[in-house]
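Bit of a strange request maybe. I'm writing a small parser for structure token strings and I need a real example to test against, not something I typed by hand. Could someone generate the tokens for this chain?
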Amino acid sequence: MKRIAQKKTLPANGPSVADSLRAREGGLTGAERKIAQALLAHYPASGLAPIAELAARARVSAPSVVRFVAKLGYDGYADFQRHLRRELEAASGGQDGGFAGQAAGNVSQTLRDADAGELEAAVALLANAKRPVYLIGGRFTDALARYMATHLTILRGGVKHSPSNTGAWCDQLLDIRRNGVLVAFDVRVYQEPVIGLVKAAARRGAAVILMTDEMRSPAARHATHVLSARTEGPCDWRSNIGMLALVEVMIAAVTAKLGTAARERIADYERMRDAASVMDL
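Reply from user aminoacidic:
Good idea to test on real output. This should exercise your parser:
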């Protein structure tokens, strides 16, 4: 394979990381190709995640990622991430540049500040197929709960999302038992029904994973594990892009933890989808 020249930090006006990966894809080793594909599939969020999460998504070791970014010309993984953030900042110019820059910062700050212990424990709960998982969200975060549930349903059984209305939540609470796992999304302005359901689920002995913002919902008092995302924005609207990045990191980690079982289930899902497509024709 042709050796890629080493240099400390690529110039800000040079090719993007994505462009560099695509240009070199034909000359990569098997492990390097997996890393490149993982980066491009969720660009740039994958590259802004902790190195262990990127390695899990690519199904390679963390040292393989370190060697790969060094071969690309970066002075370590931190330098690689700095270049990605500068790339995002450069792309955020123009009338909406303030919000775009803030959103990019929210992603990087969320992933940088994520509690590794809490994240690992939450992933272990979600990857335990013997434990049913229930997901709820608030007025705006319900879309994130539904998004996460859709992915988890493909990876494992026993996953249920309830829409953001208190009637559905009360019905769901009837099924939550000691071995259940509740994933609840609650960001400012915090919603009393969400807080109440978290408290009730905890009383019933369920494990609760709370996905919240940097100020932390009052529901955190009753949660088993708390994961926070940065949501600050330069306007009246708060941004959930950091939370979305955190959700994708968790999905990738659950996929890696389930291993062969997840791959077989995904393959089965793809076969069923192909068969349904043929029948539609």
